[in-house]
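This follows on from our talk about sequence and fold. Please put the record directly below this note.
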Amino acid sequence: MVDLVKFCVRIGYLYGRFTGTLNFEVDLETGRTRVTRRATIYSAFASLFLISILAHHFRPSKITSELWKNISSLHESVFLIVSYLRVSCALAALASRWYHRRRYIRLISSFRRLFLKNPEVMRVCRRGFISKCIVGSVAEIMQFLVAILMVRDKLSFALLLGIWGVMTVTAIINVAITQYFFGLGNARGHYILINRKLRALLGEAQSLGPRRKRRNGVFITKCCFLADRLDEIAQTQSEVQALIEGMSKIYELQILCLCLTYYLSSVANIYVLFSLYKYSGMTETWSKLGLMASAILFVFYYIDCAINLYNVFYLLDAHQEMHKLLEQRNLFPGAQDERLESAFDSFELRLARNPLNLKCFGLFRLNRSTAFDVGNSILINSVLLIQYDMQNY
């Protein structure tokens, strides 16, 4: 299974290099990063080529007029808004890659150092990595298949270039999501290992019993040993949290764009489902394979969305579990050694002063409460869009 994770990481890296999203090289054997002229030139060329293709694809033409002649102006407007937003998000992601290139390199190097300290982290989070890669790959393949099947009768070289540009936009967005997913998943794996060590340490500390009236040398030595281990755990936790906060800062613009993309895409998808029910003629020219591919795309798109959301939720849960574990020290029988008590107090004080909050430009936090509010907003705006359609079309 570990080899499968390495395969997914390798494919993700090569995919990022091919699309120009990664403008530096990473040695996949050692994890070392470097800026090379070859990577810089190729990434710049890929970005400029993508911009040219998109500019050509989105300008008015006979092909687009034929594709939209059987749909209402509202459908066309919804499609264009979502499309332009996705393109804007992809361009913002590319711009962010160039602006923060050195910070990306330092971030990868920091994760590499943590991995070398705890190589077993790969086994802890392998299931999430593999699930993400499989679901994301299926969704992209289905999107490409749907695009080809939709225009199969009007297929031309220019249209193929347009499809390639749209798929590249999707790839850039997915690469950004996947990299952020891998970063948070890696951090969650470290939190799981930290919590395991902390749980074992608490068990050993509790087994010591209350401090004796006469200071026993073995008891004091054992407490000092546990205090040193607790300091190491606290230091590792501090490094992981600093990485999470630094990564969230780098990805801040991309996170905002991705949230907007998910939001508008969800509103549009609900409206499309309603339109398929209301305008039964919309699917008359679709083949059974096209309908099946569209259904699979819809399902896997939202499975991928759920995987991304719960990756954030599970990280926050792991951080909260650490707080609950530290609260167990209050159940210890009697007082412990001063050195161990001081280590516990220092760890708890550090966590209280620096809580883990994943924010996006100070606009909102990434947590379950925000996700619930966004879900409600999506439903409300979808209903408003459907009502507007029923009243005017």
About this structure: The mean pLDDT is 82. The first strand starts at residue 25 and ends at 26. Residues 2-392 form one domain.
